Amino acid sequence: MSAANPIPTATASKNQRAVDAISSVMLLRLRERHHDAKDKIYTMSRLDSFIRRLIAQRDILNAVADEVKTLDGPVLELGLGNGRTFDHLRELFPDRRVVAFDRAVNAYGPSMPEASDLVLGEIKDTLRDFIGIGASLAHADIGTGYEDKDAVTVTWLPDLMAGILGSRGLAVSGLPLDHPDLDPLPLPTSVKEGRYFIYRRR
Q1: Angle at 149 between CA 152 and CA 180, to 5 degrees
Q2: β-bridge partners, 118
Q3: Number of domain units in the chain
Q4: pLDDT averaged over the chain?
């Protein structure tokens, strides 16, 4: 963009907050994977890191389930992947509609949503059609692990999360959500700070 058309101050500030948030998360995760103990360096493998992320995801969803059941509205799964978490959400909320979003279908068998509960395309675009749906829970596992890409995601994800949740609805996310209408909540004791995030819609 030329000097004659500078980036608006509000947008520049929002983008910088996104970069700072992702940088902080990446630093926390890097420290977790490489830590010193009595002058010895222990390195957590990518497999160990992946397992811890899934355990954090499961523990958080299990922890918020009872509260979600007291709320009205569907459950939204952003990032279907192979359907593991979608299947877990259906077990937690058997009487609730669970809608999954992803770019393309990679799930199969029992982890595959019904056609009416599957939304394909860029989540940034398709989720806009669900603003105002009043979701009781929205789970987003769409981080890439690449700081530059995730910094872009957190410039649009918080606004959409706030838009799709009903009053007091919960957002569970692998990326931080900086938004005035989303209040951060404490994590279960089994989940380390920065590994996952919980928010309540005001």
Answers
A1: 35
A2: 100
A3: 1
A4: 87
Q: Region 169-180: what's the mean pLDDT?
A: 97
Residue 67 lies in a domain: yes
User: Is residue 62 situated within a structural domain?
Assistant: yes
State the residue range of the domain holding 123: 11-201
Has residue 30 got a pLDDT over 50?
A: no
Report pTM.
0.81
* Residue 51 in domain: yes
- pLDDT score recorded for residue 74: 98
Q: Is residue 5 a part of any domain in this protein?
A: no
d(CA 193, CA 5) in angstroms, rounded, equals: 39
Tokens of 20: 């700072």
Q: What's the sign of the alpha-carbon dihedral 69, 73, 78, 79? A: positive
Answer for the pair 160, 138: CB distance below 8 angstroms, yes or no: no
Determine whether 125 is exposed, middle or buried from the number of CB atoms within 10 Å of its CB (0-12, 13-18, 19+).
Answer: exposed
CATH number, domain with residue 147: 3.40.50.150
Q: Following DSSP, what letter does each residue of the chain receive, concatenated?
A: --TTSPPPHHHHHHHHHHHHHHHHHHHHHHHHHEEEETTEEEE--HHHHHHHHHHHHHHHHHHHHHHHHTS-S-EEEE--TTSHHHHHHHHH-TTS-EEEEESS----GGGPPPGGGEEES-HHHHGGGGTTS-EEEEEE----S-HHHHHHHHHHHHHHHHHHEEEEEEEEESS----TTEEEEPPPTTS-BTTBEEEEE-
